[in-house]
Write a structure and sequence with these properties.
The chain is mainly alpha-helical. Helices cover about 55% and strands about 5% of the residues. The strands form 2 sheets. A two-stranded antiparallel ribbon has the order 1-2. A two-stranded antiparallel sheet has the order 3-4. The radius of gyration is 20 Å and the shape is elongated.
C-alpha cells in the first residue's frame, strides 16, 4: 500500500522557496530539485496557496514564492494543506462480518490511533519552516555564506535567469 510523499515534497519545495528569497521559482525548476514532474509540483502549489502558504507571480519571470515569512509557516499547516486528515487509512469498505473482530476492529483502532495522529499534529504545530532551515544549515556546516548554494541539476538557481536578463 503506497504512502503519501506530499508533506515531505511540500517541505522540500517550501525550503527551496525560503532560501531563494523574494525571487519566484518556476515549477519546472522546483520539479528538478524534488525529483518529480512539474504537474505534481503545481498540484502541491495549488494546495499550499489555498492554505495561504505560497503565492504565485505571473509573467516571464514568474513562479512560486512564500506568502509569508518562513518563521510563520508551521509544519502542521503544511501537513493540513497537503495531506488527508486521516493519518491512518481504514478499510475502503467497512468490514461486513458478524464476528467479534469484524464488528469492533474499526472503533478499537480509531480509539488507539486518534491520539497518535493528535500527537503528531501537536509536534508539527510546535515547529516552523525556520526550524527545518536551521537544521539544514547546521547539517551543511552553516553554509550560509553562498558556498553551499541551492542547486537544481547542474545549474544553480538564478544563473539561467540572470544570464537572460544581462
Amino acid at each position: 500500500m503506497p504512502t503519501s510523499t506530499r508533506f515531505v515534497v511540500s517541505m522540500h519545495m517550501l525550503a527551496l522557496m525560503a532560501e531563494h528569497g523574494e525571487a519566484p521559482l518556476r515549477s519546472e525548476d522546483i520539479a528538478v530539485s524534488v525529483n518529480s514532474n512539474a504537474a505534481v509540483v503545481r498540484a502541491l502549489l495549488l494546495r499550499l496557496a489555498a492554505a495561504g502558504l505560497t503565492r504565485s507571480q505571473l509573467g516571464n519571470r514568474g513562479g512560486a514564492m512564500l506568502a509569508k515569512p518562513s518563521s510563520d509557516i508551521r509544519l502542521v499547516d503544511v501537513y493540513h494543506a497537503v495531506e488527508d486528515r486521516n493519518f491512518f487509512a481504514f478499510h475502503r469498505q467497512p468490514p461486513e462480518g458478524e464476528g467479534l473482530i469484524d464488528r469492533h476492529i474499526t472503533a478499537s483502532l480509531e480509539s488507539i490511533l486518534t491520539p497518535v495522529r493528535e500527537a503528531l499534529e501537536d509536534k508539527l504545530a510546535g515547529l516552523t519552516l525556520d526550524d527545518v532551515l536551521d537544521d539544514i544549515h547546521a547539517r551543511a556546516g552553516g553554509g550560509t555564506d553562498g558556498s553551499d548554494q541551492i542547486q537544481i541539476g547542474r545549474a544553480r538557481f538564478g544563473e539561467e535567469r540572470s544570464q537572460a536578463v544581462g
